[in-house]
Amino acid sequence: MIPARTILVVDDEQRLRSLVQEYLQQEGFRVLLAGDGATALELARTTQPDLVVLDLMLPGIDGLEVCRRLRTFSDAYVIMLTARAEEIDRVIGLEVGADDYLTKPFSPRELMARIRAMLRRPRHSESAEDVPPPLQFGPLVIDHARHEVTLANVPLALTNLEYELLAALAASPGRTFTRAQLLDRIWGTDYFGDDHVVDVHIANLRKKLGDEPSQPQFITTIRGVGYRFGDTR
Questions:
Q1: Residues pairing with 9 in the sheet
Q2: pLDDT value at residue 127
Q3: Residues near 34 by Cβ (< 8 Å), separated by ≥ 6?
Q4: Cα-based distances in Å from 154 to 124, 148, 211
Q5: What is the pLDDT, as a whole number, of residue 125?
Q6: Which end of the chain is more exposed for a tag (fewer CB within 10 A), N or C?
Q7: Sheet holding 6-10, edge to edge
Q8: With 0-12 CB in 10 A as exposed, 13-18 as middle and 19+ as buried, what is 194?
Q9: CA torsion angle for 16, 19, 23, 28 (degrees, to 10)?
Q10: For residues 42 and 172, what is the distance between their CA atoms, to the nearest angstrom?
Q11: What dihedral angle (degrees, nearest 10) is formed by the CA atoms of 127, 130, 133, 135?
Q12: Which residues of the chain have pLDDT under 50?
C-alpha cells in the first residue's frame, strides 16, 4: 500500500487551516497543521512533508523567512498564500524558494488542483536506466543522475522548479519555448495559475547563473514569445 502524501498547512487563521485540512483529508492526504513559523519549521524538520501550504503573514517568523529556512533542509514543494494583491509579494515569495502562490481569498478547489498537479510531477527520475547523461555547456554542467547543476565546478543551489526549468530548456538548445509550453512541461497540463510564475523562476535562474538578460550566455528572452537556451545570436 502506498503511504499517503504528507502536506503541512501553515496559517494563523484556525478557520482556514480547518477548511483546508478537511478538503485535503477528503482527498486522502495526511495533514499536519501549524499556526506560526516556529512550529512549522519544527514540524517540517521532523516529518519531512511532501508539500507545504504556507501563509505569507505569520506571527513571529513570517512566511518568507520560513521558506528561506525550509529550503536549507527540505525540497518539499511550497505554495505560498498571500492576502495582498501586490505583485511584489508574490515575486518575493518565489524568489526565496516557493514553487507557486495563491492570493487570498481563494477557492479550496483551486488549491486542491494546484496541489494535485504539483505532486504529480516527479522530482527526478527514480530509475538509473532512464537518467540521461550530463549536459555540458562551457562551464555549466547539468548532471541528471546527481540532480545537480554546477557552474565552473561550483554547485548551484537551485530549487526543484529551477532545476526542472533549466533541464527542460537545455535539453533542446536553440529551441524557443513559449510560457504555455513550459507551464505544461513543468507545472503540468492541468495547471491554471498565472503564467507570470515562469518569468519569476527564469529571473531567479538567471541570477544564480550570473546571466545578464541584456547579454545572455545561457537563457535568452524571445520577446512576446518565451525563452530559449543557448544559441544567443
A1: 33, 53
A2: 45
A3: 8, 9, 10, 40, 43
A4: 21, 10, 15
A5: 42
A6: N
A7: 30-34, 6-10, 51-55, 77-82, 100-103
A8: middle
A9: 90
A10: 41
A11: -100
A12: 1, 124-128, 232-233
Q: At 199, list the grid cell.
A: 518569468
Residue 111 is which amino acid?
L
Side chain identity at residue 70, one-letter code: L
- Which residue type occupies 36? D
